[in-house]
Design a protein that fits this description.
mainly alpha; 10 helices; about 75% helix; repeat; membrane
Length: about 260
C-alpha cells in the first residue's frame, strides 16, 4: 500500500523570504517523493496482480460457477479440475483474461485512494481542531479510520467500471460475449445503460470501506509507534513492514 511519508522540515533563522523558499522546496520534495512512491506502488501492484491473475480468475469462475456448470459438477468443485478445463478448452493465455484491465484499474485506484485519504485526513484534523493541538492516540486512530474508509469508498466508486469490466471478462468461458475493455464498456452502456457500469457497487463498498479503513488506521498506528521507538530504522523498511501487517489486518477483518 502506498502512503505519503512525512518530510522533516528544519526550522532555521533568517529572512522570511528565505524561510518561505526553504519550505516550498521541502513541499516540492515531499510531493516528488509521494509521486515516486505512488508510481512504485502502482507498478508493484500491477506486477503482483499479473503473477496472481490465474488464481484470481479461478476465484471468479468459482463464484459464478452456477451460471456455467451443471448441478452435478457443482457438488465437487476442484481447483485442479477447473484449471485443467481452462487449459484444455481455452488455452494457457485464458488464465490472464481480464488482467490488462486489472493493471489499468490498479494505478488510478491507488492514486485516488492515496490522495483522497490525505485530503480527508487534513479536512478532519481541521474540522475537529486537532490540526493545531496535540491529539490523543484514540483521536488519531478515529481520524485515520474514518478518512481511510471514506478514501476507500471514493476510490472504489471512481474506478468501479473498470472493476466490473475485469469481472465480466474473467467470468467468460467458452462463449465469448465481450472482446476487450472498450467493447465491454460500450456493450454494457448500450445494453444496460450508464448505471449498468455500477451494478454491484453497493455490495463492493460495504466490503471496501471497512477494509481500507482498517488498513490505513493500522498502518498509521504501527508506523507512528515504530518511528517513536526505532527512529533510525530505514523508512522503506518501516513502510514495507507496516504496509504488510496492515494488509493482513484488513484482510482478516474482511474475512471475519
Amino acid at each position: 500500500m502506498v502512503m505519503q511519508t512525512e518530510a522533516r522540515v528544519g526550522v532555521s533563522s533568517g529572512h522570511g523570504v528565505a524561510s518561505s523558499s526553504h519550505r516550498l522546496t521541502q513541499d516540492q520534495r515531499s510531493h516528488i517523493e509521494s509521486a515516486s512512491q505512488l508510481l512504485a506502488g502502482g507498478l508493484a501492484g500491477a506486477f503482483s496482480k499479473t503473477c496472481t491473475a490465474p488464481l484470481s480468475r479461478l476465484t471468479i469462475l468459482f463464484q459464478v460457477q452456477g451460471m456455467h456448470t451443471n448441478a452435478e459438477a457443482l457438488r465437487k468443485p476442484s481447483i485442479l479440475h477447473e484449471a485443467s478445463r481452462i487449459l484444455n478448452e481455452e488455452g494457457l493465455k485464458a488464465f490472464w483474461k481480464g488482467n490488462l484491465v486489472t493493471i489499468a484499474h490498479r494505478l488510478p485506484y491507488s492514486s485516488v485512494n492515496f490522495y483522497a485519504y490525505e485530503h480527508y485526513k487534513k479536512f478532519m484534523y481541521m474540522v475537529t481542531g486537532m490540526e493545531t493541538h496535540k491529539a490523543s492516540i484514540s483521536s488519531n486512530l478515529f481520524i485515520h479510520f474514518v478518512a481511510g474508509g471514506l478514501a476507500g469508498i471514493t476510490a472504489a466508486s471512481a474506478t468501479y467500471p473498470l472493476d466490473l469490466v475485469r469481472t465480466r471478462l474473467a467470468a467468460q468461458t467458452n462463449v465469448i460475449y465481450y472482446t476487450g475493455i472498450w467493447h465491454t464498456l460500450r456493450t454494457i452502456t448500450t445494453d444496460e445503460g450508464i448505471l449498468g457500469l455500477y451494478k454491484g457497487l453497493g455490495t463492493t463498498l460495504v466490503g471496501v470501506g471497512p477494509s481500507i479503513a482498517i488498513s490505513f488506521s493500522v498502518y498509521e498506528s504501527l508506523r507512528s509507534y515504530w518511528r517513536s521507538t526505532r527512529p533510525h530504522d530505514s523508512p522503506v523498511m518501516v513502510s514495507l513492514a507496516c504496509g504488510s501487517l496492515s494488509g493482513i489486518a484488513s484482510s482478516t477483518g474482511k474475512l471475519s
